[in-house]
Amino acid sequence: MDRIAKLVSTLLLTFVCAGSMAGEIVLSGIYQEKNLYIMNPFAPSGEGFCVTEIKVNGITTSDDINSSAFEIDLAATGLKKGDDVKIIIKHKDGCEPKVINPEVLKPQSTFTVTAIKIDKNNKLTFTTANESGSLPFIVEQFRWNKWIKVATIEGDGKPGAHTYITDVNLHSGYNRFRVKQIDYTRKPRYGKELKHRTMLAEVTYSFVKPFTEVKFSAETMYEIYSDKGALMDKGVGVKADVSKLPAGDYFLNYDTKTEMFKKK
Fold this sequence. Notes:
Blueprint: H1 2-20, E1 23-30, E2 36-39, E3 51-56, E4 59-60, E5 69-72, E6 84-91, E7 98-99, E8 112-118, E9 123-129, E10 136-143, E11 146-154, E12 162-167, E13 174-182, E14 188-190, E15 194-197, E16 205-208, E17 213-226, E18 231-241, E19 248-254, E20 257-263
Antiparallel strand pairs: 1-6, 2-5, 2-7, 3-4, 3-6, 8-9, 9-12, 10-11, 10-13, 13-14, 13-15, 16-17, 17-18, 17-19, 19-20
């Protein structure tokens, strides 16, 4: 009986402690030179407000939290733009403060492209400045009257100069490339466009009868669409397998051209 009584007593103590535990809200992100605003309700007891402490990267701040709304002054913590930040908002049990603008900690696209080029090994190199949060860079090439994604590179996210390199497939004539990022606003931000002329010969194609394979005169990027606009195949190479395509009309994008073919 004593053992059962001790177990019951321990469980009751655990529940009492758990019920009296304070809560916390944890926010992580990137410092963007903007402060956070907090709605701070009264404590359930009616004595004082809900928030009990604010910590930024492990250090308690001196913000005045004894009001129904207050500001977390991130600038006062010595953070620099682009620094990682972790904020802990400790509060009493039975209430919860509200962060009005948590989006200010999300990575933002602020980059500029200071240099962009293509070398003799078909590598595109671009250098950026003014990044403020790690976001992927999307490299696009203009082909067949549209911009298509040809590479994705994770950005460093720090304000200094950063250089990125990726392989690209060139077509005959003038090539156009650009770099973009998309942040939480969903609005793309573009760097300056690169135009690069090659001396490559125009690519031609032919079919291996009976329509099992498309052969190109040189390696090329290609796409095959149905006449309904459905993408059937894409890739880079000197041939494309069309043996499994059903009979019908198709559009073939390759090099800088778009051709239509019929498979019987």
